């Protein structure tokens, strides 16, 4: 049984004109030590998916249906008190902008010690030692001085290192990282990413990486899922999707990437833009921008179909697969 | 009420009343006036507050009783030696708070100090000298025959000469009187009165204690300790009484008379007062006011009864003249004359049928309901087409405007220091003359040489009946000439807890004789 | 830090100089002081002599230079009415006002923080709506009306007979709404404990505290609604921020998140705005002190106005100006301490 | 190509402002009450049974009559009469007009001063900012009462005492205007400091616009929402300050009472029977100020982007 299983998760936002469907029947799973990538344009619902696992969706969002099983226990049904024991302890999070994540008026030490004391009966002294060790682990220069400094006294990169250290404080099973390096400048990004990966592998921690950077996902994750307008349109082993993307949207994304091998090729641009949550078209949400659109796509949401180890929700793809299965073994 | 001054012979009998044992002075009294005394030097300022203080910590030679007769205090008796001299005999066995005994020398020292004090100097102008005859007798001599000798003598509160002689630690004379800085006398006191000041924080609280060997053992007063707190805001002062915070308050605003009367725990005492409230019509500023018919029209347009009943809530006696009842100059034949039709007829006769516009000024925190009275008068004048541009000011800003005669009609209230009619005319109706100082508050610039001559004559007329006739004639002439617009005499009101028997110790001059107060 | 203090002291002196110039220039508009000092029957000549003595006839410049000369040596002139140096009079009355302001601030502090935080955390709860409603009404009622109602209810007492007394529930309701009063409605009471110099405090005796209650409540009634709404608005804004969600993601307990993480950030703007309001509150005491006959500087100033006691008025305005600059400085210092991101040169974040 | 000219009315109807207004019952009720009071005030001469300023109509004999629904009431005076015998209803209507005039007038003045100084201090910063803010501090240390005394003295010196009736309103507007402009200045300065950092200001500078143009054409429009919010609160404060001044005897003269001076004149009667002289105008004052504050709250919640985003 997988470490984390999300089944048909529905999340809605009660906004003025009635409820907006932020996530529609999202299902995926995450095994121990596995690295999963969530990809999609901004506003596709990646962050909402991440936050809804720990029921941290801001007002007026709420979980409308489905379940989130962690070691068999359904997190979405848990009481706030029980869920608190999981948050930060078994599942840790890393936010996007290190400038905003740490409380500006509290020292780094306080914010680390409190995380430990929230889950363990431990003296402040002992908590500070653990925090110091973790800071060394994320290779921050002169860690003891850092404990008594305020967030504004550290650089962006150093702050993200602190946040990673905090995530690892209680040896969690899963780390959910919501675009951990986007806010950093390029030179630091690679460094921080490498550090995060190394630490996850070292402690066999499962990593759920939310990003819009396909390149990063292809190098770092083992499985990936592509999201569009709150739905997973394609998920499967990263290698298979990157090399042979099935869903037209995924193909569009990949073709939009500049390839080292083909200098001077005009980058493909997917026409139009992703609809906002309040104007999601019926049927397959991508149909207005899809080159292979058919009437069927305009009416109903396609079912998932298996293509290799990849699940895809697209009528065109499912038609192609049927042809392949029906075709006799013509070719030797 | 003509027997005013002839009573002094009768009073002799009182002095030798049998000596009664003084009641055990244990009660304490919480008192709230609308202001606390400005200074402890009773010669520094001539004001109601200071005189009330004087009656608590000092004793006068003689004082007014309820029915406006003289009651001997430190002066056992007095008799007229000749036209200009009155011989007084002091009471024996009277000691000051400092322990020194009271002698005629102390009275002479007090008399000299009164002659220097800027405020009291005017009252003692007619007196030439105080001659000490012996330890307990002295003569009070006037430069010419002066009928109000005893009235003035009520202002003499003998001070402890020894206590106030020499210099204080800063080297200034202890007896010095100064308006500006604080002098020895403004901080320390030694009198013969029933109470001594034990602690004083100006504007906050003044505490008094009964003087152990007070000479007047016959006094029924059983109050041992008094704490006086000034409460400026009428509303708060009344609430303090009703909530039991204080035992005795004065003054009581007219609007709260009802409430205190029908409250079982509190008792109310009112008396008709001697302060006249009136409007002047400035003839120099506004030419039509020189026509007697216009002035009479204004006089007819004013409804004194309406103001007294509605605005003062019956807490004032409508007035047609300056002298209140009980004064020599009071002329019973003069009555209020409210008659709008007659007023309109007079205006038409004077050629002002369609009226005119005048300016009017009044204070808004000096006299009881002063701003509301001014509004009512303005409304009444509007009925005969006199359009009034009214402006009310706080008293600090009002008086400079009054001195400049800044408006056509101006309100003023007056209480005669000498409790005698002549004082009214000297300051309010005589022709303004800066040398002699007469007509200093005559904002109407009314000038009638005849009446002025009559007042001067009255000031030297010792035959009281003739003097009364003269003064009443002046009142009649002013009435016919509509020299001013009299409104009412302000009543006085005091309120206290049921257990505090304030009725016997109160008087028309508003000097509560707290020494004799009985608290059950 | 020193530079910051020196800068503020020089500002304080400038402020006091400007105030003294303004208040001195309106001298004649304040009425004639002599009127209060002299009896009514004193002749004009006599008054002229005294006026000359007091130097009231000198030209404006001469008077101001004399005043400034003395002011530099710390003597702000003598009050006509009290006959004592004005500073002495002010310091005699200052403790009463300061205790009133401290009392009101305590009430505000202890009430506005919990209510403000609660209203921010549960904006939909009916209790929050109730508090916000009361605070809006509170702002709309002028302070002297509140004061009078307090006196009527709690010191005089009100017997209510709206409900039919014969019925059980009627008399019970009547009893519920009636009050028998008894609270002191004026002055500071007799139980004042002498602390030091002219400071007689009412905090240390039950009688003193009872006298302080109604005036402090009525003074607080002006500022309390303002602080509740301020804390609520700031708190709601802070609760949206990322570091609060991150604190939740760390699994911290709600009260720690609300009362440490969120509250500390909320208090920053509250301190700056609040500090300024405290300075203003000193000026608001005038109304409260008038109604409660509270012997503070407010009442003293008002009486100085009615008596046109000009030296006292000028000195009071300067002292209030000084108090204001001092409170501003203290507010900036406290802000600097609480907000680590601000270096102590008094720059606001 | 012609873009469809969206009429201003449609844009308003479509806007979020109208949307949130429709759903917020409190806002609707307070707006309706506010408009009713303003109309009653502005058209006081039409509604008022009698003209309180015409002294001839006032008869001292019918002073302190209770409202008509109470014993002793007189139909001619629906809400009873005040201590002078003036019809309370008409005096309240005229008084409301005066109070509103003072409220809006004072805020207009505060706005003008506040915006000007706020913009200068915020945008120019440095010494200008320090000087202006110190002036604001000096100003704030003067409570409205002290400003009233000083401005009163100046007006008296220039106009003398006699014309007080006509100039009282303008004097009070100037007083409350001067006393409270720092409140708006501080708000404007705060939002200007925030706006100044934004790119559009740099863009405007790059395009070579003069400082005035940048300040007034670019920055000011973006700081309108906080200004609008604080102005509503300041109107309420202005009306209460006038009431406070009247309580101390420095407000409108008795002959032309505002709500505040009406309450003050009835003040002595509050505990002695004729409570209506103070309480009815007091009620009108509280309702008027309450309604303005509620509208201010709704505006702030609605216009404050940060809150709305949540």
Characterize the structure shown.
The complex is a heterotetramer of chains A (about 325), B (about 525), C (about 350) and D (about 300). By secondary structure, chain A is of the alpha/beta class. Chain A is about 35% helix and about 25% strand. The longest helix of chain A has 17 residues. Chain A is globular. Chain B has about 525 residues and is α+β, with helices and mostly antiparallel strands. Chain B has two domains: about 200 residues, Periplasmic binding protein-like II (D-Maltodextrin-Binding Protein, domain 2); about 220 residues, Dipeptide-binding Protein, Domain 3 (Dipeptide-binding Protein, domain 3), CATH 3.10.105. In chain B, a hairpin with a 2-residue loop joins strand 4 and strand 5. In chain B, helix 9 packs antiparallel against helix 11 and helix 15 packs antiparallel against helix 16. The longest helix of chain B has 18 residues. Chain C starts with a helix and ends in an 11-residue tail after the last helix. Chain C has 13 helices and two strands. The longest helix of chain D is centred in the middle third of the chain and has 37 residues. In chain D, helix 3 packs across helix 5, helix 5 runs parallel beside helix 8 and helix 8 runs antiparallel to helix 11. The relative contact order of chain D is 0.13. By secondary structure, chain D is mainly alpha-helical. The chains are: A alpha/beta (about 325), B alpha+beta (about 525), C mainly alpha (about 350), D mainly alpha (about 300). The interface between C and D is large, with 47 and 43 residues.
């Amino acid at each position: 049984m997988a470490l984390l299983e999300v089944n048909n998760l529905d999340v809605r936002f009660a906004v003025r004109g009635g409820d907006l469907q932020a996530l529609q029947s999202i299902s995926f799973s995450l095994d121990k030590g596995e690295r999963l990538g969530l990809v999609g344009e901004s506003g596709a619902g990646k962050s909402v998916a991440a936050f809804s696992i720990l029921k941290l969706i801001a007002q007026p969002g709420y979980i409308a249906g489905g379940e989130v099983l962690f070691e068999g226990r359904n997190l979405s049904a848990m009481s706030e008190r029980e869920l608190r024991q999981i948050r930060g302890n078994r599942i840790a999070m890393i936010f996007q902008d290190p400038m905003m994540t740490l409380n500006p008026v509290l020292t780094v030490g306080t914010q680390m010690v409190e995380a430990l004391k929230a889950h363990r009966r431990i003296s402040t002294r002992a908590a500070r030692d653990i925090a110091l060790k973790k800071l060394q682990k994320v290779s921050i220069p002169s860690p003891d001085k850092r404990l008594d400094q305020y967030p504004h006294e550290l650089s962006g990169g150093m702050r993200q290192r602190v946040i990673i250290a905090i995530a690892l404080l209680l040896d969690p099973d899963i780390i959910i990282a919501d675009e951990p390096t986007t806010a950093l400048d390029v030179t630091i990004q690679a460094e921080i990413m490498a550090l995060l990966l190394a630490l996850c592998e070292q402690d066999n921690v499962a990593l759920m990486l939310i990003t819009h950077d396909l390149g990063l996902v292809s190098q770092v994750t083992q499985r990936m899922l592509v999201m569009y307008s709150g739905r997973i349109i394609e998920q499967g082993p990263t290698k298979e999707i990157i090399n042979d993307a099935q869903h037209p949207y995924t193909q569009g994304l990949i073709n939009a990437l500049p390839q080292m091998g083909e200098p001077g090729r005009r980058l493909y641009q997917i026409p139009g833009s992703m609809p906002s949550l309040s104007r999601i078209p019926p049927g397959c949400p991508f149909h207005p921008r899809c080159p292979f659109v058919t009437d069927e796509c305009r009416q109903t949401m396609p079912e998932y179909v298996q293509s290799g180890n990849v699940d895809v929700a697209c009528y065109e793809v499912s038609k192609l697969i049927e042809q392949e299965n029906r075709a006799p073994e013509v070719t030797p | 009420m003509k027997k005013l001054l002839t009573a002094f012979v009768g009073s002799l009998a009182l002095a030798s009343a049998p000596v009664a044992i003084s009641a055990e002075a244990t009660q304490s009294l919480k008192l709230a006036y609308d202001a606390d005394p400005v200074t402890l030097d009773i010669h520094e300022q001539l004001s109601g507050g200071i005189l009330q203080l004087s009656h608590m910590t000092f004793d006068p030679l003689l004082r007014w009783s309820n029915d406006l007769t003289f009651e001997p205090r430190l002066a056992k008796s007095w008799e007229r030696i000749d036209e200009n001299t009155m011989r007084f005999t002091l009471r024996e066995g009277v000691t000051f708070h400092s322990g020194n005994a009271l002698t005629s020398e102390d009275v002479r020292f007090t008399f000299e100090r009164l002659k220097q004090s800027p405020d009291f100097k005017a009252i003692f102008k007619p007196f030439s000298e105080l001659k000490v005859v012996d330890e307990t007798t002295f003569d009070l001599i006037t430069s010419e025959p002066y009928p109000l000798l005893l009235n003035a003598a009520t202002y003499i509160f003998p001070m402890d000469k020894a206590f106030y002689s020499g210099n204080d630690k800063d080297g200034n004379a202890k007896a010095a009187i100064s308006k500006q800085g604080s002098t020895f006398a403004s901080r320390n006191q030694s009198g013969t009165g029933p109470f001594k000041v034990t602690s004083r924080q100006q504007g906050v609280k003044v505490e008094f204690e009964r003087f152990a060997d007070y000479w007047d053992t016959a006094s029924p007063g059983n109050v041992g300790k008094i704490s006086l707190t000034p409460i400026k805001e009428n509303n708060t002062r009344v609430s303090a009484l009703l909530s039991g915070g204080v035992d005795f308050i004065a003054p009581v605003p007219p609007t709260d008379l009802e409430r205190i009367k029908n409250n079982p725990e509190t008792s109310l005492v009112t008396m008709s007062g001697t302060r006249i409230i009136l409007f002047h019509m400035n003839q120099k500023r506004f030419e039509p006011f020189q026509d007697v018919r216009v002035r009479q029209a204004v006089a007819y347009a004013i409804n004194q009864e309406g103001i007294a009943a509605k605005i003062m809530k019956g807490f004032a006696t409508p007035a047609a003249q300056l002298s209140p009842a009980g004064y020599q100059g009071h002329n019973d034949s003069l009555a209020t004359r409210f008659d709008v039709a007659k007023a309109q007829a007079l205006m038409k006769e004077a050629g002002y049928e369609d009226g005119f516009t005048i300016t009017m000024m009044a204070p808004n925190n000096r006299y009881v309901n002063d701003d509301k009275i001014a509004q009512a008068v303005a409304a009444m004048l509007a009925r005969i087409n006199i359009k009034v541009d009214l402006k009310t000011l706080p008293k600090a800003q009002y008086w400079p405007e009054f001195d400049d005669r800044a408006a056509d009609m101006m309100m003023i209230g007056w209480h005669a220091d000498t409790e005698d009619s002549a004082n009214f005319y000297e300051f309010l109706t005589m022709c303004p003359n800066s040398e002699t100082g007469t007509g200093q508050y005559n904002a109407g610039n009314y000038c009638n040489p005849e009446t002025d001559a009559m007042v001067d004559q009255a000031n030297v007329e010792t035959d009281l009946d003739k003097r009364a006739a003269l003064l009443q004639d002046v009142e009649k002439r002013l009435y016919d000439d509509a020299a001013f617009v009299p409104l009412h005499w302000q009543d006085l009101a005091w309120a206290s807890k049921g257990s505090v028997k304030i009725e016997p110790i109160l008087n028309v001059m508003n000097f509560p004789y707290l020494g004799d107060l009985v608290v059950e | 830090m020193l530079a910051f203090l020196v800068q503020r002291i020089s500002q304080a002196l400038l402020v006091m100089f400007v105030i003294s110039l303004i208040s001195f220039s309106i001298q004649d508009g304040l009425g004639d002081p002599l009127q209060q000092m002299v009896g009514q029957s004193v002749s004009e000549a006599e008054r002229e002599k005294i006026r000359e003595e007091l130097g009231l006839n000198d030209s404006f410049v001469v008077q101001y230079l004399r005043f400034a000369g003395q002011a530099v040596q710390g003597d702000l002139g003598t009050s006509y009415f009290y006959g004592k140096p004005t500073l002495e009079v002010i310091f005699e009355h200052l403790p009463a006002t300061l205790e009133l302001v401290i009392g009101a601030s305590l009430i505000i502090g202890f009430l506005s923080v919990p209510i403000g935080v609660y209203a921010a955390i549960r904006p939909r709860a009916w209790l929050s709506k109730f508090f916000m409603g009361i605070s809006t009404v509170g702002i709309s009622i002028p302070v002297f009306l509140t004061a009078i109602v307090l006196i009527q209810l709690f010191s005089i007492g009100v017997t209510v007979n709206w409900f039919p007394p014969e019925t059980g529930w009627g008399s019970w309701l009547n009893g519920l709404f009636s009050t028998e009063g008894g609270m002191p409605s004026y002055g500071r009471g007799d139980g004042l404990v002498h602390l030091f110099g002219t400071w007689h405090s009412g905090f240390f005796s039950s009688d003193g505290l009872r006298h302080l209650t109604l005036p402090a409540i009525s003074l607080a009634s002006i500022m309390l609604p303002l602080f509740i709404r301020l804390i609520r608005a700031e708190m709601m804004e802070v609760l949206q921020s990322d570091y609060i969600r991150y604190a939740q993601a760390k699994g911290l307990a709600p009260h720690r998140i609300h009362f440490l993480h969120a509250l500390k950030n909320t208090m920053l703007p509250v301190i700056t705005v609040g500090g300024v309001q405290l300075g203003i509150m000193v000026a608001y005491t005038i109304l409260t002190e008038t109604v409660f006959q509270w012997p503070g500087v407010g009442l003293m100033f008002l009486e100085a106005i009615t008596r046109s006691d000009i030296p006292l008025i000028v000195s009071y305005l300067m002292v209030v100006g000084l108090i204001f600059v001092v409170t501003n400085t203290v507010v900036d210092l406290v802000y600097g301490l609480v907000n680590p991101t601000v270096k102590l040169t008094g720059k606001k974040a | 190509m012609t873009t469809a000219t969206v009429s201003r009315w449609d844009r308003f109807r479509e806007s979020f402002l109208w949307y949130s207004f429709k759903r917020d019952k409190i806002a609707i009720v307070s707006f309706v009450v506010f408009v009713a009071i303003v109309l009653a005030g502005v058209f006081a001469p039409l509604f008022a049974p009698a003209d309180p300023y015409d002294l001839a109509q006032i008869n001292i004999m019918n002073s302190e009559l209770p409202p008509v629904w109470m014993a002793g009431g007189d139909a001619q005076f629906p809400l009873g009469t005040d201590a002078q015998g003036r019809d309370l209803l008409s005096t309240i209507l005229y008084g409301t007009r005066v109070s509103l005039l003072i409220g809006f007038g004072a805020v207009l003045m505060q706005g003008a001063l506040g915006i000007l100084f706020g913009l200068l201090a915020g945008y120019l910063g440095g010494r200008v900012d320090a000087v202006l803010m110190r002036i604001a501090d000096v100003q704030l240390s003067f409570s409205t009462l002290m400003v009233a005394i000083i401005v009163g003295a100046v007006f008296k010196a220039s106009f003398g005492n006699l014309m007080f009736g006509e100039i009282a309103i303008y004097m009070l507007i100037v007083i409350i205007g001067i006393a409270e402009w720092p409140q708006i200045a501080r708000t404007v300065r705060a939002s200007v400091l925030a706006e100044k950092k934004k790119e559009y200001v740099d863009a405007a500078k790059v395009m070579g616009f003069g400082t005035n143009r940048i300040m007034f054409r670019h920055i000011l429009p973006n700081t309108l929402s906080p200004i609008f919010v604080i102005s509503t609160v300041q109107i309420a404060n202005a009306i209460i300050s006038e009431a406070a001044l009247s309580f101390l005897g420095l407000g409108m003269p008795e002959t032309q009472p505002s709500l505040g001076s009406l309450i003050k004149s009835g003040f002595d009667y509050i505990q002695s029977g004729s409570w209506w002289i103070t309480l009815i105008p007091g009620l009108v004052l509280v309702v008027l100020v309450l309604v303005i504050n509620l509208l201010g709250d709704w505006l702030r919640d609605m216009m404050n982007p940060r809150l709305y985003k949540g």
